[in-house]
Design goal:
Helix content is 41%, strand content 14%. It has 292 residues and is an alpha/beta fold. It has two domains: 38-123, Leucine Dehydrogenase, chain A, domain 1 (Rossmann fold), CATH 3.40.50; 148-271, NAD(P)-binding Rossmann-like Domain (Rossmann fold, 3-Layer(aba) Sandwich), CATH 3.40.50. Strands 5-4-6-7-10 form a five-stranded parallel sheet, sandwiched between helices. Strands 2-1-3 form a three-stranded parallel sheet, sandwiched between helices. Helix 7 (179-188) links the parallel strand 4 (168-172) and strand 5 (192-196). The chain is globular and about 50 Å long. The structure holds NADPH dihydro-nicotinamide-adenine-dinucleotide phosphate.
Length: 292
């Protein structure tokens, strides 16, 4: 169930609070699954190498899983792990009946082919929703497991109570993990979607006509507040450091917040939603595998 923010004075979309509410709902669902069907959803997280940011993400994912009652298993492999060794671990996890979700932390070391690894994960255990089968299902309008950050973006828009149908939406960034799937999801909700990228001409003019702006670029405060249409809903996926070393989004928050009706902060907007959606996908996968 989605909580709707009914108070129009609530301009800031509080991703932390929305993610927490989602985790509470998931904890209840996991407890029910255990009691009624004897199933404990299991998530395997695989990390190759020593990237400090990835290590933090993996630790946070394990902690969040355990908090909602999901069994969490971590496989930390050395940087020099061969692609064949990683494929062999994935094959084991694919056939492990206690594991319902598998996530390989990206990026992988350069000697391992990312696409090969993503495709080796069983589509029904693809907790990240990156497998071409799941992407294809999303594109053809019958979604199965969907990418976590885009799911989080959509959930945040839903919490505002905004009716997406018929709105003009603009997505800036066309990566497979954020921009493209967000655009498809907005289209699925009957928005009219413009998908922009580094070669887009007239970005400011396009943004100025949009009711919904989703920024997924990775450039500190590139989207200027003055480009935002009065009353727009702004979702900032970006996670960057500004010149002072402070965490910031892709949108110039202070000025954009003056024009937007609703806006996500960075940090505390989309970020907390990604892990919550990973947990949700693991539970969805467990239900689908056990057909309940
Ligand atoms: P990518 O680098 O894969 O993609 C960035 C996209 O932005 C590309 O499509 C690129 O265009 C486009 N772009 C780059 N420069 C411009 C420009 N000047 N004008 C318009 N478009 C531009 O990034 P990701 O999608 O992986 O991530 C985007 C941001 O979201 C990052 O800051 C990342 O840290 C953050 N992120 C946050 C998550 C969260 O949980 N909060 C999860 C995932 C990502 P082109 O294709 O032409 O190169």
């Amino acid at each position: 169930m989605t909580t709707t923010i009914t108070d129009p004075s609530l301009k800031i979309i509080d991703g932390k609070a929305v993610a927490k509410a989602l985790r509470v709902e998931l904890a209840t669902e996991v407890a029910d699954l255990k009691e009624s069907a004897g199933i404990t959803p299991g998530l395997a997280v695989v990390l190759v190498g020593e990237d400090p940011a990835s290590k933090v993400y993996v630790r946070n994912k394990a902690r969040a899983s355990e908090e909602v009652g999901i069994r969490s298993v971590q496989h930390i492999l050395p940087e020099e792990t061969k692609e064949a060794e990683l494929l062999s671990l994935i094959s084991e996890l694919n056939s492990d009946a206690d594991i319902h979700g598998i996530l390989v932390q990206l990026p992988l070391p350069a000697h391992i082919n990312q696409a090969t690894i993503i495709e080796a994960i069983s589509a029904e255990k693809d907790a990240d929703g990156f497998h071409p089968y799941n992407m294809g299902r999303l594109l053809t309008g019958s979604p199965t497991l969907e990418p976590c950050t885009p799911l989080g973006v959509m959930h945040l828009i839903e919490t505002t109570g905004l009716d997406i149908a018929g709105k003009d939406a603009i997505v800036i960034g066309r990566s497979n993990i954020v921009g493209k799937p967000v655009a498809v999801m907005l289209l699925g909700q009957n928005a009219t979607v413009t998908l922009c990228h580094s070669r887009t001409a007239g970005l400011a003019e396009k943004i100025a006509t949009a009711d919904i702006v989703v920024a997924a670029i990775g450039r500190a405060e590139m989207i200027k507040g003055e480009w935002i249409k009065e009353g727009a809903t702004v979702i900032d996926v970006g996670m960057n450091r500004n010149a002072d070393g402070k965490l910031c989004g892709d949108v110039e928050y202070a000025t954009a917040a003056k024009r937007a009706a609703r806006i996500t902060p960075v940090p505390g907007g989309v970020g907390p939603m990604t892990i919550a959606m990973l947990l949700k996908n693991t539970v969805t996968a467990a239900r689908a595998i056990h057909k309940i």
